[in-house]
Specification:
Length: about 110
């Protein structure tokens, strides 16, 4: 079987605006003891996102941008070192989350 299209863009699928519009963020981390923590969930898109009272040491921090359905559409993870008595600023460059989809085809 072969499938052809007269329009080369006709077989391209793209998400709707609602599917990719970020409505809230979650910030999670793996703390220096290796434990997973939810650090913040916010619908406030004002940057920076501020988190207080983190355990001193090396963290792996993940920021997820989610749509209204709760699907992760943008994400970033990076190492952050928290030092005692110092403010730490890190810049995260979110990128599209990977995933798979499906397509039903009916051939008559």
């Amino acid at each position: 079987m072969s499938i052809e299209t007269a329009n080369p863009r006709a077989d391209t699928f793209a998400p709707t605006d609602a599917e990719v519009d970020i409505t809230h963020f979650t910030v999670t981390g793996i703390n220096p003891n290796g434990e997973s923590e939810t650090l913040k969930t916010t619908t406030d898109k004002t940057m920076p996102i501020t988190i207080h009272n983190l355990l001193v040491g090396n963290w792996s921090i993940t920021i997820n941008g989610l749509n209204a359905a709760g699907t992760i559409v943008q994400t970033a993870t990076q190492a952050v070192t928290i030092e005692a008595t110092k403010n730490t600023t890190s810049t995260f460059n979110l990128h599209p989350a990977s995933g798979t989809g499906s397509c039903d085809i009916t051939i008559t």
